[in-house]
Amino acid sequence: MRSAARLAFCLIVCGAACARPAANESTSPPREPADAAHHMVLRERSLGVMGTELDIKVFGHDAAKLDAAIDAAIVEIRRVEDMMTSWRASPLTRLNDAAGMGARSVPPELAALVAESVRLGELTGGAFDISFAGVGKLWDFKARPPRVPDAATIQSRLAVVDYRRIEVDVERSAISLPKGFRIGLGGHAKGYGVDRAMAVLQEHGVQHAFVNAGGDLKALGRKGGELWKIAIKHPRDKDRVLAVIPVSNTCVVTSGDYERFFEHEGRRYHHILDPRTGYPSRGCMAATVVGPSAAFCDGLATALCVLKPERGLALVNTLAGIEALLVGLDGAVHVSRGLQSSDKSSD
Q1: Is 83 within the bounds of a domain?
Q2: Residue 165 and residue 238 share a domain
Q3: 210 belongs to a structural domain
Q4: Which of 21, 195, 218, 304 could pair with 287 in a Cys bridge, judged by C-beta atoms 3.0 to 4.6 Å apart?
Q5: Same domain, 162 and 240
Q6: Which residues form the domain of 262?
Q7: pLDDT tens across 125-149, in order?
Q8: Residue 118 lies in a domain
Q9: Domains in the chain: how many in total?
């Protein structure tokens, strides 16, 4: 997949005009000849997977081959789900059950993703921490009536939340968790599943595709000869479009406090927990991250919802090939330096 730096951003943030790419950048993949693009067929599929809605769209010239590619991509993302789910027996739940018992062998992919999660924890200063599950199990966002866990109980569970104590040996595919620890990959595995689904589509010869799993999306090639256009909407006003991003060969991942939440005594409690406090994050309403890896963007978007906008943007601005759009708790929109530069270039 090409770098996110090859994107052409068409921002309409705060009424801005469309941005022009830098003179030395190639912003779009080679076009199909007009006649070829016109005669492409579209095949698509929607289904539930990894606790969300999965949408796959592919363009090509052979419907049967496209259908076979979609079938294989669905098998792949379900394989990832079976390995990394915490809602039923899986390699992840068996690892959690063995916490405190020393190193345990796990599938190589699981070891690699956990290692990446730990590195993301280091990068974000603990705003992303897969050991949040130790306190996360106290929260039930489906309970009716809703219930806020006892403060003392939350505080006690923070003793088993610390990504720095997770030991990963990628070469041996082994992980060791301290006693009482649990890890959850809800902020990382969905993006990885999207990456894998797209990789399988490409292995089947697909050159133009779109995979979206509940806001974690990856776009390849073009949609009927044109760039794929992704609309970023305000988390509190779905009729308000903050940005339209034409993309190809990259990922756009959005996380926010509007996905799973309940209101209690005038306060919104949502599913993105701050692993440092054990309570729902108070950093941003929503975070959209653009970059080459859906797995990385997934984890980073989660962390940016925990961090305040200023600190989050400071981090994003140090990362090559990564851009972000954040909506603060006050509803204000913040964009990373690369998007600001693109916007100014259009004036």
Answers
A1: no
A2: no
A3: no
A4: 304
A5: no
A6: 1-28+227-347
A7: 999 999 999 999 898 888 888 889 9
A8: yes
A9: 2
Q: Are strands 323-328 and 267-270 parallel, antiparallel or unpaired?
A: unpaired
DSSP 75-137: HHHHHHHHHH-SSSSSHHHHHHHTTTS--EE--HHHHHHHHHHHHHHHHTTTSS-GGGHHHHT
CB contact burial 240-278 (16+ within 10 A = b; e otherwise): eebbebbbbbbbbbbbbbebebbeeeeeebbbbbbbbeb
Residues 6+ apart with CB under 8 A from 262: 141, 143, 146, 268, 269
CB 306 within 8 A of CB 161: no
Please give the Cα distance from 154 to 145 (Å, whole number).
19
From residue 18, alpha-carbon distances to 31, 267, 322 in Å are: 21, 37, 19
Q: Which two tokens stand for residue 224?
A: 């009927």
Residue where the block lists tokens 């068409």: 10
Q: Would you say residue 55 lies in a domain?
A: no
pLDDT at 32 over 90: no
**Token representation of residue 36:** 């070829």
Tell me if 182 sits within 8 A of 160, measured CB to CB: yes
Q: Evaluate if residue 13 carries a pLDDT over 80.
A: no
Say what the pTM is.
0.87
b/e map 306-326, b = 16+ CB within 10 Å: bbbbeebbebbeebebbbbbb
CATH of the domain at 15: 3.10.520.10
**Residues 134 and 161 sit within 8 Å (Cβ to Cβ):** yes
Model pLDDT for residues 206-242, shown as the tens digit of each residue = 999 999 999 999 999 999 889 999 999 999 888 899 9
